[in-house]
Design goal:
The complex is a heterodimer of chains A (283) and B (397). In chain A, α9 packs across α10. Chain A is of the alpha/beta class and 283 residues long. Chain A contains 13 helices and 9 strands. Chain B has a 5-stranded parallel sheet with strand order 4-3-7-8-9. In chain B, strands 1-2 form a two-stranded antiparallel sheet. The chains are: A alpha/beta (283), B alpha/beta (397). Chains A and B meet through α2, β1, α5, α8 and β9 of A and α2, α3, α10 and α11 of B.
């Protein structure tokens, strides 16, 4: 326990953490509850897990949830085919009669079996169906699962720090929510964005950063955009702007926005923004 | 500790569970929460499980710790109360009219939208004289709770942690955008339709079937015999029929458009047809209902597993539905009343639903809605309704 008090999460190299989120992360770690993060794409939900792992110097294990995934895939895999092959040809060093040799741990299994505490990121849980979610929470609650083939129980050696992300607008099921702490990450405000940009581009031209961020929030406000550009797009955009030798920061004020394709990736959005931008230039 | 806070949250409609409250107590006992700011964030992450309630939480928090009055903050509650009044009005018009001190008949002339507006106006007028006196509306729990005696600067222990106090943060109501039901957006529709999947094997045989492989290998006296299967793919056929005619559907065009856009991007096989008010001899493939008619009889050739989704307000004059020559378009008068055609469609496609953008509470007032809802399972075109409709469509018959 003494060690744990040192293990407080404070933010990491390239991740800007607001105080609120930091205390939520810390409290979830202390209460040993999974932390469910929701928010627009590009608000850094996945990045947070990376940052926690980095800051606490724990290994990060990522479970990317897919719609067709079954819970057992996340726990372990029984490699029947290899065993079948070995039993037919018998040219491997594995012992065919020992099923354990053919059990491979899935991501959750790996986190449980690890020799030290890990950060387990369960990314985009909303992709899977409700049963998967509830069953998984059972496993995470009890910190153990059974391997049916060998009748062995896998218990977590160290309780991993669990971060779950979801993009869904809809709420997850009640039993699921009951077992998690919840936080919704709002889209960063310009001030916050400024900090984020500064972390990503050291010594960036002040004018460029300011104008780019201003322009970014203006185009984000344009009506009926299907996919609003997020932090990731802004970072790429600034990267594109800063390598262009012909580009001058003050162009952005006069609404000459180059490389719109970096910000808007859906063609109707792109057309719309482009039209608006050209129209504004004429006045 | 903070029992009152917990119950205020509950009363105002945030689904807080006792278990989560115990978790909060545990957190308090562990000494993780040292000041009000910590309490604000931690209690929220433990108790409130959806950003939709963050705004309400902010309001309750500001109320409880700072004495900011609950009902009089601004528009949101007025909307809620006005809606409550409308419901009450539908149940017992006289009581509402009496309470407002106006003539019942005068109110009866107004449409629901007008009524809501009227109620809101009245509520705003009466704010000063009517402190917490909204009890009769039945929304409950809005009566002002006493000051908790918290001093704004007094509970801070750990020094400056943020530039704003939690109460200030709460009072800013940053999460206002996320509260209330909101319009039916594409993302929400996508969420609801997600479960509409019908997985059947398709494509090349590239998945190994382990069970069959083992069985065949045994039969082969241990010589390995690999058996492959096709992967499962979603091959759901959907027919979407939309009422796009006449002014009665005008207010809902936006919502229907969203549904339509989503359906097109989501399903491989979705056919969209249009009709006006109800279905007679034809459905049209073009929005003008002019160029590409398709006879209803021909629909019987299609796969009966096709999901039929009809979107319309189902509101019309009864004869349009019942009479042999009910159609307002002369070319369509083949002699079969629309109601027959609808029944025919419902029989052809057992998996069918009718989505109605009209609020469910108003259905009882329109004769044709009641009649059609006996033929098709009818659901409100809202997030909840969509979910129910999808469950119905995917149910095994």
């Amino acid at each position: 326990m003494q060690q744990e008090s040192k293990n407080e999460f404070q933010g990491a190299g390239k991740y800007i953490l607001d105080q609120e989120l930091a205390s939520i992360v810390n409290i979830s770690m202390k209460l040993e509850m999974p932390l469910l993060l929701k928010g627009e794409p590009g608000t850094g939900k996945t990045m947070l897990a990376h940052a926690i792992a980095e800051s606490l110097a724990m290994p990060l294990i990522i479970l990317n949830v897919k719609s067709s995934m079954k819970l057992i895939d996340a726990l372990y895999q029984y490699d029947t085919l290899t065993r079948l092959n070995d039993s037919r040809f018998g040219d491997s060093k594995r012992d065919v009669s020992n099923i354990d040799e053919y059990i491979k741990m899935g991501k959750i299994g790996q986190a449980f079996c690890a020799d030290r505490r890990t950060v387990l990121l369960i990314d985009e849980i909303d992709k899977a169906d409700t049963d998967f979610q509830d069953d998984m929470l059972d496993v995470l609650d009890q910190m153990q699962f059974d391997i049916i083939e060998t009748d062995r129980t896998i218990k977590a050696k160290h309780r991993p720090v669990i971060i779950i992300t979801s993009n869904a607008k809809k709420d997850l099921s009640d039993p699921f929510l009951g077992r998690c702490n919840f936080h919704h990450i709002a889209f960063p405000d310009p001030k916050m964005m400024r900090k984020i940009i500064n972390v990503h581009f050291e010594g960036i031209d002040v004018k460029l950063a300011e104008n780019a961020i201003d322009a970014f929030y203006v185009v984000r406000e344009i009506d009926s955009i299907e996919k609003k550009p997020a932090t990731r797009e802004l970072i790429n955009w600034i990267r594109a702007l800063s390598v262009d030798p012909d580009f001058r920061a003050k162009d952005l004020i006069t609404n000459q926005l180059p490389y719109l394709g970096v910000l808007f990736k859906k063609s109707p959005d792109y057309e719309r923004v482009k039209n608006i931008a050209t129209r504004r230039k004429m006045f | 500790m903070f029992l009152k806070f917990f119950y205020t949250l509950k009363e105002i409609g945030i689904p807080v569970s006792p278990t989560s409250f115990l978790t909060l107590q545990k957190a308090l006992h562990q000494g993780i929460i040292n000041n009000l700011d910590d309490f604000y964030t931690c209690a929220r992450s433990i108790l409130v499980k959806s950003e939709r309630y963050f705004d309400l939480y902010d309001q309750v928090f500001a109320h409880h710790f700072e004495g900011v009055p609950l009902p009089e903050n601004d528009g949101f509650e007025v909307d809620e109360i006005a809606r409550g009044m409308l419901e009450e009005w539908l149940k017992d018009p006289k009581r509402v009219a009496d309470a407002l001190g106006v003539n019942e008949d005068e109110l009866k002339k107004m449409s629901p939208e007008e009524l809501i507006e009227y109620f809101k106006e009245r509520l705003k007028d009466q704010k000063e004289e009517h402190h917490g006196g909204y009890k009769w509306i039945g929304t409950g729990g809005y009566s002002p709770v006493g000051h908790s005696g918290y001093h704004p600067g007094g509970m801070r222990v750990g020094g400056e942690s943020r530039n704003k106090s939690a109460v200030k943060v709460a009072n800013e109501r940053r999460y206002k955008d996320y509260s209330t039901a909101g319009p039916l957006t594409q993302a929400k529709i996508g969420e609801a339709l997600k479960r509409m999947r019908n997985m059947i094997p398709a494509g090349p045989k590239d998945r190994i079937n382990i069970d069959d492989t083992i069985r065949e290998t045994l039969r082969n006296a241990g010589e390995i015999e690999l058996i492959f299967d096709r992967a499962l793919k979603d091959r759901l056929k959907v027919i979407l029929a939309i009422d796009n005619g006449g002014w009665s559907m005008d207010p809902y065009i936006h919502v229907v458009q969203t549904l339509f856009d989503y359906a097109r991007s989501q399903f491989k096989e979705v056919k969209t047809y249009f009709f006006h008010n109800t279905i007679y001899d034809y459905l049209w493939e073009d929005t003008a209902r002019y160029k590409k008619p398709k006879k209803i009889i021909e629909f019987s050739k299609l796969d009966p597993e096709t999901r039929l989704v009809i979107v319309g307000d189902a509101s019309m004059a009864p004869y349009e539905l019942m009479a042999h020559d009910g159609s307002i378009h002369i070319s369509e008068r083949s002699g079969r009343p629309s109601i027959d055609q609808l029944q025919y469609l419902a029989k052809t496609f057992p998996h069918c639903v009718w989505l109605n953008p009209v609020s469910e509470s108003m259905w009882g007032y329109t004769h044709t809605i009641m009649t059609i809802s006996k033929i098709f399972p009818m659901f409100e075109l809202s997030l909840d309704g969509l979910e129910k409709a999808v469950t119905r469509l995917m149910a095994k018959s």
